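From the shared-data thread, chain only:
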Amino acid sequence: MAGMSLPTSSSESPVSAAPESATFAREQSGGVPLLQARSLFCERDERVLFSEFQLDIHAGQLVQVLGSNGSGKTTLLRILCGLNDSYEGEILWRGQPVEEQRETFLASLLYIGHRVGVNRILTPRENLRWSASLHSPVEDDRIEAALARVGLRAYEDIPCRNLSAGQTQRVSLARLLISPAALWILDEPFTTLDVYGVRDLELLLAEHVANGGAVLVTTHHRLDVPCELHRVNLDNPSERTVVPAS
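Structure, as tokens:
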């Protein structure tokens, strides 16, 4: 199957990772981070996953969480999204406790987990319409352009149960192109993608941070992105590295 690609027809315009209606405040160096984790502690089955864990995510940053299987990567992401409350510590959104601005935080967040969140009875078009309705409706031409960019032109109206695993993953990732969220939190988003899809998703992540958004991602894939990459290793939380743009 063809990889994710930009529309080439003169009647179509490429879909940006940041919708025209969305404006992301660009934080200056040293400014207030979008998301902060302070002194997080979490254990599972009487085993400590992380303790005194600290994390700052600024607008314009791509952050990759590394770690061996069972190190707590998915647990950390679910805690930061508010889907797991089995922890101690504090989470801040734009410098304020997330509990005090839950609605604003959730409106600024797009989380895609291991389960891709695609209704297999619905078509790709219907899935994106439903996803968009959680925030604000999106025009059909934008949905079609998003599906075209992720390589699903001509599959818009086929039930997702008839799609391959990779195509279903692309339906989920098309949500990135129609979401107004400033912060993307993605758990293993490269799973089932072919080499073309991997490269185009890497470019999409870089495009989002270039537009002032932020991305937190877990993946065992070695990212090759045209932007600065910040790495955090849960096997050694004090290990923080910055990889220059490729």
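The first strand starts at residue 35 and ends at 44.
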